[in-house]
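[Meeting: bench + compute handoff]

Bench side (C.D.) handed over the final construct sequence. Compute side (W.E.) agreed to return the predicted structure before the next meeting so the bench team could plan truncations. Sequence as handed over:
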Amino acid sequence: MKCIDKYRIRGLLGRGGMGKVLQVEVPVIRRLLALKILTPGDLLLKLIGREQLHRLFIEEAIAMAGIRHVNIIDVLDFGMHHGRPYYVMDYYGNTLGAVIGETYITDARSRILRIEKVIHYTRQILDGLQRLHAAGIIHRDIKPFNILLTEDDTVKICDFGLSKLRGETIDVPPALKVGSPFYAAPEQEDHPNQVDQTADLYSVAVMIYRMLTGTLPQEPLPPASRIHPDLDTGWDEFLARALSPRPAARYPDATSMAAEMMRLYQRWEKTIDATCRLQPAAPPPPPSRPPAATLPPRSTPLRTGPSDARALFDLDALWQPAFYRDAAFQPDAAGDTVRDETTGLQWQYGGSDFPLDWPSALAYIDDLNAIAWMGQQNWRLPTVAELLTLLRRPPSGTDYCLVKDFAPHHKRLWSCDRRTFTSAWYVSLELGFVAWQDRTFANHVKAVRSI
């Protein structure tokens, strides 16, 4: 196995203009980490030069290591390998980009998130930026794939390669654009050295708009309230200010932007609470394709790559169900399991106490059968097809009043279906999509059996 000093290379996580990020393993303890090493492309070498890039890379590592904040990724180690600097960080297997389903076609439609989830992510991003800005650091490349997510959904801002330090001026060639298209503030394109913290806040506003509407903002700005049924015009005013092309017209800092966002969110919460108190819960929507929904879901595991998975799993372009099945969930008397007579399946109401890696998920199932949990010994890890029967359409209005059928904290569930020998498919119950992860990543487990 190839190594960078003591770190064993397990695979490539990503590649950017200045370097590549590798998944590495610490010997003996086998802890997985992420290692970023300077490997600039030919264009960047030509435009900036090796010596300047070397200096910028080291300054990136120093800037990240100097900040202690729960929403900013930590630098754990630094070194030189054959004359190239590298630094080591914690490894996180998920990003906001993956959650919204952003692809290399950046302006393609993405998944719309629930309001409370948008707030959950954005509040943490703004908290992290407030800390960066207080230290005199402007990130200049805030975008979904630079927002890492831990296994408990904590935000970690990463990739400071384009950041601007207080008082620093870098001679940027006109051919080199600082930031990412669609997310960078308009003033950053022509004057990257003159931007202030409002440039980062503009990028956050682009992400908020995208999470709420599934699209990138355009000019003129389509009101988000016309796209997302749970938004009022207050959100339109908030986004119009945050996305202003004039820096002086935006929110002056992350704290004030977060305060206004939370005011809107609290107003939405009060509306939902009043709705649920005054009206009965809406019945579940009918299945969108009843004939197919009557077929029992596949129960045998399979292995498939992304090119065939969408068709095999009956998913749309955003990896969400092409149709939603009917269901008749009935909890047992003790509340430990839930039966669905329409599919002939019995599920755990809860599941594993903690997120588990995929091999441990299989061991969890073996343990249930070894003790004959609930008097049964045919529990198994569900297929993607079976997990999809648990999904319902995204809520709006009185849908938020529905009683939950399963324990709410089991949000991402492993399936028994594999992508490769080192990765497997999972289903996000909370956000309603299918994705894959390295088998070392941790998701919850919910056992199932055929009745």
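W.E. noted at the follow-up: Residues 331 and 338 are 4 Å apart (CA to CA). C.D. will use this when planning the next construct.
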